Amino acid sequence: MEKTSFFITERDNKKCCSSSCKEIKIKKKRRSPSKEANKYDLVDYASLPTFLKHNEFILSYYRSEWPIKQTILSVFSIHNETLNIWTHLVGFFIFLVLTNYVINSSPMINTTTTSSLTHQVILHNNLQIIHSNDSQVSQTSLHVNQTTTMIKNQETSEPTTRWPFYAYMCGAMFCLLMSSACHLLSCHSEHTCYLMLRLDYAGISGLIVTSFYPLVYYSFTCHPFIRNVYLTAITVFGIATIIVSLFPVFETPEYRSMRAGLFVCMALSGLVPIMHKLMAFGDRPEAVVTAGYEMIMGAFYALGVIVYAARVPERWMPGRFDLAGHSHQLFHVLVIAGAYTHYLAGLVYLRWREIEGC
Ligand SMILES: [Zn+2]
After folding, report:
1. Domain span holding position 181
2. 197 in any annotated domain
3. Confidence (pLDDT) at 40
4. Any residues with CB less than 8 A from the CB of 165 and at least 6 apart, and which?
5. Is the same domain home to 75 and 207?
6. What is the 231 CA–ligand 1 centroid distance (Å)?
7. Model confidence, pTM
8. 215 and 139 share a domain?
9. Residue 10 Cα to ligand 1 middle (Å)
10. Per residue in 124-139, pLDDT tens?
11. Tally of structural domains, the chain
12. What's the 151 CA to ligand 1 centre distance in angstroms?
């Protein structure tokens, strides 16, 4: 996830705002034979070039302008980005396994049941109703109604569209992989850092946009006009955000808050289709359950952003959390928790439409 701080201080900019400052630091390095001998040693915050200064509360264990080979191999060594890299790399593989699971369990409801067999099941259930008490009757009737609807849908309609669910899984995997790569490679050079951050922003935008797809598509399956308006709006919003983040001018401090605001607005706009879904289908348990998951997801993301922005706990004890436990690692874990919650919502959406169709 995004490593560039929106909060680089004025002091940092004044300290080292030109290429001459960088040259002075290189000269300083060259004066020390021991530094030359240990070229790939980890360094302290004070020795970093400006583009690597994001968090003054993490004091040491930095990689700085290492050759690309050493930078890539550092995925297996210990430094202050190790857990940032691996939290999202593990998250990527978790989503890969989950995607594979859903593909192999396609569809969520077994459609191989033959028509005659399912009618026998209904007959059996109806016999149960006759011989059961009142509370069991209502439960069994609900089950029979669902089964009957499901069978009708399977016999008369096409299989449930799955691309919105898979688009979300791909969006989550792309975001996690780009974030991991960004944390691994950004220390190589200022140019690499710039490129990786662009990919990281694209990954964040992709995750937010594709998070809308299952929500909008499955909630408004039977209302194609509304569904298409929402899908088009969020896709255009996401592409615009990616384009905006490509302009170098938006890397400057005065535009950073604007870019952060774009991501937050894009995420908050999800409240519109969620509220719309609840107003239109509030009597459906699937609509309520998925809205609950979406609120939990939002809480995870919001908590992650707060921890990220506040830079706690390292703010309270600078240097203590350099390797493990600092805010960015907590932020990564909360992002995975939020994305996993949305995956659970996606399963409910799939089941809803496989039962009910349109
Ligand atoms: Zn990150």
Report:
1. 68-107+162-356
2. yes
3. 78
4. 102, 213, 214, 346, 349, 350
5. yes
6. 27
7. 0.77
8. no
9. 23
10. 455 454 444 554 544 5
11. 2
12. 46
